[in-house]
Amino acid sequence: MEVWFYHLERRGREEALPVLLEKALARGWRAVVQAKSEELLDALDQRLWTYADDSFLAHGRASDGDPDLQPVYLTTGDENPNGARLRLFVEDAPILPSLGAGPYERAMLVFDGRDEAELAGARAQWRAVRDAGLPASYWAQDAAGRWEKKA
Asked: N or C: which end of the chain has fewer CB within 10 A?
């Protein structure tokens, strides 16, 4: 399992997450998005239904029922009720020990580089992931907003 760190500089989380989730679903993967606050999950819940005029991402939370049927599951916990192959962490949600709810193909920490607290949290999590012996890579946006692997 790989852990990828996505450093947002050009786009916000609300723009980047739907794109990352669409790519995961196109691969046939289900996903779990873990945040630290219900407030952010509320915002993401709305965003995934309305992020494009011609599209939406089907998703749900525990309160919606049937979590095992959701292609994208939103949570503040470390559960994996939909058998997700991808776990995305936002708002500096802790990567370790949540990965134990896998098995995952990939985990991603998506953090806002313009937010000093999120940046510091991502650095601390990078060290923790590396210390745990997990393969990690770092991705940043180029001038056009495309992702480039930096480390």
From this structure: C
